[in-house]
Write a structure and sequence with these properties.
single chain, alpha/beta, binds flavin-adenine dinucleotide
């Protein structure tokens, strides 16, 4: 089944059928129907806004959880926290829910929130272009054009799969697919399979694949730190209590939230504070693996936390099994039926699963957004580095809000907490625009510059920058443009109020008189 095809019981029923013409204009256009887009839509609706549309290229809501259908897919932040604060789910089966449950949760929340008639699915946003004279975005989609006063991109930080650049991979004759585009038609039972990568998806896939394949080669470039996964099924009594004891889920959620926040100093203050975690991760290896050579191969050579810390109870035990090989020699090429490593070994396989992650430091949507000065967001970021104000708004791109923008990612807690903080900020911005009758808002260059200078100064001393690894957190200049280097409650506090004084604005009334009125209000002349 293609990952984005409509599924039984999906949320699509209430969405506008693909092919129905788009309205000529909406106040707010949201790109993406994952946690970010759905959360934005529900909050907009709750605030009484009806003039909005959510567009997603997939045929269902869910984003990440619609697309990642690989065996073993599950969240790695407990579901009590990895869910909307306004939509607790008493039926989670266990602490770390599997993908089908998370997807079903998002479909249900979408259906029950009454916003689905604002969703246009199966529609790709191709071009988002600022029209300065009209102070609005002109948007080209695969279903036609629409203009919008405000665009909210919730197109995902981990949405576009990254394929590895390996010589000959396109000539491989067997099944070859990315973990985020799992080919469910490929029957891997009894086959020889290679998994390329040992990141968060791979360590969930490997134990599941090992149950069904004849032989599994796991290709590792860098050994990850893997902690035990404190997962368990909720009892019937717990589930009943979640349903009927008011506030109980909130207590679980709060306890998990604060437990996770205690990890922050280990990332941002001193790696020494993460020593207990490192000890636990090393014990995880010792318990599962007795072969000294394999132990050496799986022991990371960098500080814990530098790359994403993974959690699994079955990854190491599976690597120790006879029909599973961990290959650490670099891959030099792929032939029609084999993977060839630098030591000259050729390992024949029937299928290759690529689990090499996503485009993170170059967000694909950035190529499709053109701002005031005619440059795309990608061009702007290529020249100046990926940056935004408060991870959400960008100088030169008026009335554009990005959910999960630069430096909003987390190494320790739920992205839904970040998303909800950003959505609250967007809503306050819209309220403020209405209240002051503003046609446009964009962050002042100096405000954006100060925000990022402070972030980069804080990031300099974090384990992500100093821990001796190269990771997808860092861009090609070694700059960390993905992670938030402070507690999540600080993030929420920073975004609690739309801070109009950090913005250049255009009054709606001035629009008719001036086609370049934004500049007339940009009183602060500062370089970004
Ligand atoms: C396997 C996996 C496991 C994860 N587990 C966790 C976890 O346990 N905890 C956690 O906090 N985070 C986790 N994450 C991160 C996760 O991505 C976020 O938590 C969250 O789901 C992001 O939501 P989003 O709405 O921002 O993006 P997404 O869910 O990626 O949704 C983006 C949507 O935008 C659409 N889109 C993109 N471009 C266009 C376009 N041009 N036109 C139209 N539509 C477009 C896509 O089709 C997609 O539906 C995980 C990620 C992955 C990949």
């Amino acid at each position: 089944m293609p990952s984005s095809a409509p599924t039984a019981g999906n949320a699509r029923g209430g969405a506008r059928p693909t092919g129905r013409p788009l309205p000529a204009h909406v106040r707010v256009l949201v790109v993406g129907a994952g946690f970010g887009g759905l959360g934005t839509a529900i909050r907009l609706h709750g605030a009484g806004e009806r003039d909005f549309l959510v567009v997603d290229k997939g045929h269902d809501v869910g984003g990440t959880w619609r697309d990642n259908t690989y065996p073993g897919a599950a969240c790695d932040v407990p579901s009590q926290l990895y869910s909307f604060s306004f939509a607790p789910n008493p039926t989670w089966s266990r602490s770390f829910s599997p993908q089908p449950e998370i997807q079903a949760y998002l479909q249900r929340v979408a259906r029950e929130s009454g916003v689905l008639d604002r969703f246009v699915l199966g529609t790709t946003v191709l071009d988002i272009r600022w029209d300065d004279a009209r102070a609005r975005w002109e948007v080209e989609t695969s279903a036609g054009a629409v203009s919008a006063d405000v665009v909210v991109t919730a197109s995902g930080g981990l949405s576009e799969p990254r394929m590895p650049d390996i010589d000959g991979i396109e000539d491989f004759a067997g099944d070859l697919f990315h973990s985020a585009r799992w080919n469910h038609d490929a029957d891997l039972t009894g086959k020889r399979v290679a998994v390329i990568g040992t990141g968060a998806s791979a360590i969930q896939i490997v134990p599941e694949l090992a149950k069904q394949v004849a032989h599994l080669d796991v290709y590792q470039r860098t050994a990850p730190w893997v902690m035990p996964r404190r997962d368990r099924a909720y009892t019937r009594a717990e589930k009943l209590a979640f349903r009927f004891v008011p506030g109980l889920q909130k207590v679980y959620r709060t306890a998990i939230y604060w437990g996770r926040e205690t990890f922050v100093p280990g990332f941002t203050v001193s790696a020494k504070l993460a020593a207990p975690a490192k000890k636990m991760a090393l014990a995880n290896i010792d318990h599962a693996i007795s072969d000294p050579d394999l132990r050496r191969k799986v022991t990371p050579s960098f500080e814990i936390g530098c790359k994403r810390i993974l959690i699994s109870n079955d990854y190491y035990p599976v690597l120790a099994r006879d029909h599973v090989d961990l290959v650490t020699d670099p891959i030099v090429k792929v032939t029609g039926n084999a993977v060839v490593t630098a030591d000259g070994q050729e390992r024949e396989v029937d299928a290759i699963v690529v689990a090499t992650g996503f485009h993170t430091t170059e967000q694909p949507i950035a190529d499709h957004v053109t701002g005031r000065d005619g440059r795309t967001l990608a061009e702007t970021w290529r020249a100046d580095g990926m940056a935004a104000y408060k991870g959400t708004t960008i100088h030169g791109f008026p009335n554009l809000f990005q959910i999960v923008g630069p430096n909003t990612g987390l190494g320790h807690s739920s992205m839904v907490f970040i998303i909800e903080s950003q959505v609250a900020y967007v809503l306050d911005a819209l309220r403020t625009m209405r209240q002051h009758d503003l046609a446009t808002v964009q962050p002042r260059a100096d405000a954006q510059h100060r925000w990022n200078a402070d972030l980069q100064r804080r990031l300099e001393r974090t384990v992500w920058n100093t821990g001796g690894c190269s990771s997808w957190y860092l861009d090609s200049h070694g700059r960390n443009t993905t992670l938030w280097p402070r507690t999540t409650f600080t993030f929420r506090k920073q975004l609690a109020r739309f801070d109009l004084d950090a913005y250049v604005t255009t009054p709606r009334a001035g629009l008719a008189r001036s086609t370049d009125s934004t500049r007339t209000h940009d009183t602060k002349k500062v370089s970004a």
